[in-house]
Amino acid sequence: MSDSYDPAKPEPNYGMQERRSGEDRRDVTPASPTNLERRRGPGRRLTDFIRSAEEGEMSREQYLWLMAIDAFKRVNGKPFPSWTDVLEVARKLGYRKTMPSELNLGGRCEDWTERPDASSGVNREAPDEE
Fold it and tell me: What does pTM read for this prediction?
């Protein structure tokens, strides 16, 4: 008995999807840009900040950030830090909110600034409840 082609028998799918619906998921543009979009259109190039990191040459700032996050994960035994943990590391590195935001978050939260010498506000003991 030989395996021969039978046009009446459907070919196995192997998990493949039909992509000829006419919709291109790459054409989706957000209703209101946030300034966080990373997809580039035709003629747009990566910034030097992103390109150098993707090519393996980090700036001093990127390397410091990587080392600080790595140290936090090792010291605390957390392979996946929460966003609050990431913010804590940023604050301990000296980052403060000193400039107005360049993001458009659609009015979902209030923007603010603080003094450059403001305390990090992390690792403080909670006040005793009496």
Answer: 0.60
* DSSP string covering the chain: ------TTSPPP-TT-----SS--GGG---SS--S------TT----HHHHHHHTT---HHHHHHHHHHHHHHHHHT-SS--HHHHHHHHHHTT----S------TTSS------TT-----SPPPPPP-
Q: Which two tokens stand for residue 107?
A: 């009015």
Please state, in angstroms and rounded to a whole number, the distance separating the CA atoms of residues 21 and 23.
6
Residue 92 to residues 62, 86, 111, 114, Cα–Cα distance (Å): 15, 10, 21, 15
pLDDT in tens, 65-115: 999 999 999 999 999 999 999 999 999 999 999 999 999 888 889 999 999
Centroid of chain to Cα 6: 49
The identity of residue 98, as a single letter, is T
Whether the per-residue pLDDT at 130 is higher than 50: the answer is no
- Dihedral of the alpha carbons of 114, 118, 121, 123, in degrees to the nearest 10: 150
